[in-house]
Amino acid sequence: MIIFISCETSINKDQQTLKRINKKYNAELNISSHSGDTITGLRIYGHSFSVIPEEIKEFRYLEDLRIDGVEITKLPDWIKELKRLKAITIVDVPFNSFPEELLEIDSMEHFSFNNHFTLNNAVKELPKELHYKNLKSIHLSRLKIQKLPLLHFNTKEGVSFTLRKTDITEIPDEYRKYHIREFTIDDNRKLDHVDNLFGTYDSLKEVKFQYRGHTEFPMESFKKCYNLEVLYLVDQGLREFPDFIYQNTKLKRLYIDDNFFENIKPDIIKLQDLELLHMSNTFMIDLPEEIFALPKLSYLNIRNPLIKKLPSGIMGLPKREVPMKIYVSNAPESYVPVGMSLEELNEKGYVLLNYN
């Protein structure tokens, strides 16, 4: 005897909630991440929603929430019920003050506050202290914030900071005791010194200096760094290639375009792990052959009208195991070292490309 068992396949609860929200508000929630039918990330846009739907608290596994352009002045109190929330991104939301509701979500790891447009009401002050044992990153962009909070965290790998177009005037002295993994500084015109952002030095892996504003270049702090893996020093007015770079032998990516230095020492050979080197628009005329002997360097950008030829020392180097793409300003064949052909250069693993 054959028994047929009829069972109704139920839609995952998160999917049911999603449909209910979309129908109720005649809008569409944007899913940014999911695990199967379980929703773990959401984006709420102001062109679709004028409020934060309370039904969102039903997404029990929600970890990442972005609120973009929604005209609210505070977060709903029920946001505290999102016990798994790890990351929140606030973009162009006219908050009168920092959302205190977030202080009660112990699982938070990432904060991002961004103001892309001019808002009369935007967060101007952060709490004096933030207590998050798993804190990993703070991103502040285009805000009138003047002071950074003191931090209490236990994250072993360190914290990441981005400060872009803020009114911050100083980095608290306490930050020297923090394990800071990376930081980005971009156009903070009231911030003269950033040395405290280097933290304990040994944990620092990535530093990006973009538009300088009025920031003083922290040369002495850089001299205490030995573990950098990514360094971005574009348009920093550097008249000499910084010696501290040579001591960071774990460096993998270096961006040092649009500076005024004329020479690089043979010590560049110490950067055996370097994979990418951006070095366009400098005052260099000759390149040291040691650059071309770096075993892992696969991307080299030397767009510069002053550089006419690659060094002839390349002829004596062994064939590369990792091909090197070399981006230049003019016709690639014009850069071939004297005594070599373009084909011979290619056979050695050096590929000249015109950068467009």
UniProtKB/TrEMBL annotation:
The keyword Repeat applies. InterPro entries: LRR_dom_sf, LRR_domain-containing. GO terms for cellular component: cytoplasm. Keywords: Leucine-rich repeat, Repeat. The keyword NADP does not apply. PANTHER family: PTHR48051, RAS SUPPRESSOR PROTEIN 1. This is Leucine-rich repeat domain-containing protein. It comes from Flammeovirga aprica JL-4.
